[in-house]
Amino acid sequence: MTSAARQAETDRASVAFHVALSQIGAKTTVEALSLWNEVPAAQRAATASGWLRKAITLVMSRRRMSRDLARAYYRLARALQTGRTVADPYHPEPTHVTLGDLRREFAALAGTYSPGNDQAGGAATGESGEAPSAHDDESGPADQDAPETPKVDDGPELDDGDDDWERVLVEELDGLREEEERIEREAEEELRTVLDALGTQNLDRRLSQVDDEQAAKDADRQRAEAHRQAGAQQAAAASRVAMNGGRSTTWNHMRRDRRSLGYVRLSRTGTPCGWCAMLISRGPVYKSRESATFADGDRYHDNCHCYAMPVFSWQQYGSSELFALSRECEAQWPKVTRGLSGKAAVSAWRRFIRQKQREAHKAAAQEARRSTTTAQEA
Question: Of 184, 231, 188, 183, whose CA–CA distance to 207 is shortest?
Answer without folding.
Answer: 231
